[in-house]
Specification:
alpha+beta, 2 domains, about 20% strand, four-stranded antiparallel sheet, about 170 residues
Length: about 170
Amino acid sequence: MISQYLGFDSDYIIIGLSAVVLILLILIIVNIAQMRKLKKAYKVFMSGKNGKNLEDTLIKRLDQVDTLLEANNENEKTIKSLFEAMQLTYQKMGLIKYDAFNEMGGKLSFSLAMLDVRNNGFIINAMHTREGCYTYIKEIVDGNSIIVLSDEEQKALDRAMGKTENNE
């Protein structure tokens, strides 16, 4: 009756509804299989365990978390102390090689600036001559020297403080 008004054949409606029922049955079977797997996993998890054993397991895991937190705090303290110690180490370096006297070649003389993070440190100047090698050291405080610096020493200091390129 309704199929005559709509222009459908009732056979097509029955086939469509049968397909929907078949799909729903397949989904129910898949759902039942998944529920069985879940129940099996739950039984394995709970087998031989009562509330006390489960509580013991949770307490053990919480103790492990506490141990990890303590170790993390120790690591943070160690990192902080290492960072503080690093502030006192020489972290910046500038090296200039040069010929101290025109008659000698090979750039055997050098000025070496070593500075910490606050630009405190020293400059070593080694002058190589035919008679020998002479070394001098000058103290650097806040990027400055009390003693007048030679051109090479100033270049080494500038290089250590990052004021010039390291292409020389």
